[in-house]
Design brief:
The complex is a heterodimer of chains A (about 270) and B (about 475). Chain A is an all-alpha fold. Chain A has helices at about 5-30, 40-60, 70-85, 95-115, 125-160, 165-170, 175-205, 210-235, 240-265. Chain B contains 16 helices and 10 strands. With about 475 residues, chain B is of the alpha/beta class.
């Protein structure tokens, strides 16, 4: 069996592990006791397998993961999962895994299935690796922030609808979710700013077309949204629901940038 | 016969352990008695007279064990029950001794009608149910397990517990843990004050740094303040139309301060949790007032608990961003849901407790039959060893050492095969409540002294599955 097939096999097992972890976190969210204790170890195993997959793939191709958008997307999910595994040690935050694990699953499936793995032709300067790495880590932080924000909205909805049994008791308190989401946003924002600035330096070297412009526009939109959320929180007291929606929409924009890159690889357009 | 050829059979020359009957009586895991009063059997006026608090507990346990009838004892004394879990040679004697001691505290005629007792399996079942909070006034409340554990620790510290109660209590704690983790018996809140605290904790994880504002200074405010205090709140502000009343209540609650009700707009800006219980006939907190406060709070959440009737907080306040308002109907609905959920879960918990009890009783009965099985095996082995030795010293004295060894091994194997079926039958018989008769028959058949299973010694090294 050659290394490519081994890597594919590892990826399949990784995806299965993420799917099982997602299911178990949903069961936990639904108040089921069955198997919930193993959700975290399974998610950790999935992350470890994904790491092994990176080593096998890149040892085979003798390449760096950030050279390919597909791998960068997958790596972003891995970083987000790892951050979450540390965060979930805090009491009750573990249920946020119901959002993080599916995010990771979606990212690795998208990275594998949408578009052929493609090495970025121009990753030959010092600026572009810095651009990709900072965007990648920022996106991972935003992924966790958006998972926390989604949990916040869920908890807030329970309180507003006065649905006081079950879910309300299983989710973390609103202030914990709001604060944690804000901190991850705050940590990711400077990295995203670096990514945007280095991207601006690079932009002159590549061809631009409509899809590329749309991709850039989405990136700037994400940056503006995060900036507004942070600024308004500090200056205008934006907390809770508005901040949560801002974080989620911002992350969606950021994630769409990855999707557009993947689509470009698949179609050759953009 | 050489030492080697007798290896497997010769050790059976020891006498059977059934002679040690008194030791067996001490260790019968089902020789437990429970006696006491609870909220089910006695009104609080009786319970408070029987209650035994603090250092008095150790003294009481010493008195209880002063009589030889009681070998081991644990005293559980809470606001809802005063119970003795004890072990001794006879449950009757244990219960009588406990009754005597209770009568020394409260005249016998006053206390005896309220006392209940349980013996053997029923006693163990009762202990399991108490520890699992199935016998509690508020089923599923978590405090009782801690109280029973504390009672066990006190009894242990004054050497009042031995093998019987240690095993029963360890099992009871295991059962309680299973009930808590495998059923939702503890889910759902069951008092308005605890509901308010639990709801506040879904907004603020830690009430320690939060400011609690109480509007009103009546009994409800007082009980809620105490519940919030117990829930971790440290900063409590009390505002009331009558400032004197606010001051009076503030002086009773540590860390509380009184403020005039006229400061309400400013108080709302600073507070995180507002509990309203004034006697006002209209809204004390209007939507406009709350909106103004929310704006100045720069997005910090504000939680209103309106326990007043008629309501004191405009319901539309709940529609404001980062603002939550729950009234007495909402809270009582949650209380009802909590009770309903617990009732549903109680059946599952009862089933779990009964299954654990059956396992415990089966284990205890296995212990009872063990000495008989050992005695039969020893009798058979001793007979075979004696016959073998006689034959090897006589007609077969010419046999070489290897053949002698082979004969020893063959007889050991034959003994094991012959005894396998009777051993299994005896063990199975003890799972049947009427199985003791088979044990007696077996002892007669093998010419062993006949004793009741309860009098047989048990192996202390073996313990029930946890």
């Amino acid at each position: 069996m050659n290394l490519t097939r081994i890597a594919d096999l590892i990826l399949v097992v990784t995806a299965l592990a993420y799917a099982v972890a997602s299911g178990l976190y949903f069961l936990q969210l639904a108040g089921r006791q069955t198997g919930t204790r193993v959700a975290r170890p399974i998610l950790a195993s999935a992350a470890t397998l994904q790491l092994v997959h990176f080593f096998v793939t890149n040892a085979n191709a003798k390449a760096c993961p950030i050279n390919s958008v597909n791998q960068a997307t997958s790596l972003m999910a891995l970083v987000a999962t790892t951050i979450f595994l540390f965060v979930s040690r805090v009491k009750k935050l573990e249920v946020v895994g119901a959002f993080v694990a599916p995010q990771a699953l979606a990212a690795i499936l998208a990275a594998r299935l949408v578009g052929a793995p493609d090495t970025e032709p121009a990753v030959r300067t010092a600026v572009l690796p810095l651009h990709i790495t900072s965007i990648l880590v920022a996106s991972a932080l935003f992924a966790v922030a958006s998972a926390l924000a989604a949990t916040y909205l869920l908890q807030e909805k329970q309180l507003k609808k006065k649905k006081t049994t079950g879910l309300l008791q299983r989710l973390p308190a609103l202030d914990v979710l709001d604060r944690a989401s804000h901190r991850f946003l705050l940590a990711g924002f400077p990295l995203l700013t670096i990514g945007i600035l280095t991207g601006l330096l690079w932009i002159g070297h590549v061809n631009t077309n409509k899809l590329a412009l749309l991709r850039q526009l989405l990136g700037y939109t994400a940056w503006i949204l995060f900036a507004v959320v942070l600024l308004m929180r500090s200056a205008g007291g934006w907390r809770g629901r508005r901040a949560a929606w801002g974080t989620i929409v911002g992350f969606c924009c950021a994630f769409l940038v990855y999707v557009f890159y993947l689509v470009r690889n698949a179609t050759g357009v953009g | 016969m050489s030492r080697d050829s007798r290896t497997n059979l010769a050790h059976s020359a020891r006498p059977a352990q059934h002679a040690d009957a008194p030791k067996g009586q001490q260790n019968d895991p089902l020789k437990v008695a429970v006696i006491g009063v609870s909220y089910k059997s006695a009104p609080v006026a009786v319970r408070e007279r029987v209650a035994i608090a603090g250092d008095e507990r150790e003294q009481f346990l010493a008195q209880l064990r002063g009589d030889h009838a009681v070998r081991e004892a644990i005293l559980v004394s809470t606001c809802n029950r005063v119970e003795i879990y004890a072990a001794g040679d006879s449950e009757e004697a244990v219960i009588e001794r406990a009754k005597q001691l209770f009568s020394q505290r409260v005249p016998a005629d006053d206390i005896r009608p309220f006392l209940y007792d349980r013996r053997g399996r029923d006693a163990v079942h009762h202990v399991f149910r108490v520890a699992s909070s199935l016998d509690s006034l508020v089923v599923g409340e978590p405090q009782i397990l801690g109280q029973v554990k504390e009672a066990f620790e006190i009894a242990t510290s004054c050497d009042a517990v031995g093998g019987v109660l240690t095993r029963a209590m360890t099992k009871a704690f295991h059962v309680a843990k299973r009930v808590r983790s495998e059923t939702a018996l503890g889910a759902g809140q069951v008092s308005v004050a605890s509901v308010a605290v639990d709801l506040a904790k879904t907004i603020y994880a830690d009430l320690g740094g939060r400011e609690v504002l109480l509007l009103g200074a009546g009994e409800i405010a007082e009980s809620a303040a105490r519940a919030l205090k117990a829930g971790g709140a440290t900063r409590i502000v009390i505002a009331n139309r009558s400032f004197d009343k606010a001051e009076a209540l503030a002086s009773q609650i540590e860390g509380a301060a009184a403020r005039p009700l006229t400061d309400l707009p400013h108080l709302l800006e600073a507070a995180d949790i507002v509990l309203v219980s004034t006697g006002a006939a209209n809204f004390v907190v209007t939507r406009e007032l709350a909106a103004q406060a929310v704006k100045k709070r720069r997005g910090r959440a504000l939680f209103f608990v309106d326990v007043a009737v008629p309501r004191n907080v405009d319901p539309r306040v709940h529609d404001l961003d980062n603002c939550y308002r729950y009234d007495v109907d909402d809270l009582e609905q949650i209380v009802a849901q909590g009770l309903e959920e617990r009732r549903a879960e109680a059946d599952a918990a009862e089933r779990l407790v009964r299954a654990e009890l059956d396992a415990y009783v089966a284990w205890a009965r296995q212990l009872e039959v063990t000495p008989t099985v050992v005695a039969i095996r020893e009798r058979v082995r001793a007979t075979l060893a004696a016959e073998l030795e006689r034959t090897l010293a006589g007609r077969l004295k010419h046999l070489p050492e290897d053949d002698r060894k082979a004969l020893g091994v063959m007889l050991e194997a034959a003994a094991n095969k012959i005894l396998h079926a009777p051993t299994r039958a005896l063990k199975q018989a003890m799972e049947d409540p009427d199985g003791a008769g088979l044990v007696d028959s077996a002892r007669r058949l093998f010419d062993l002294p006949v004793t009741s299973p309860a009098q047989e010694p048990v192996d202390e090294a073996r313990s029930p599955r946890h």
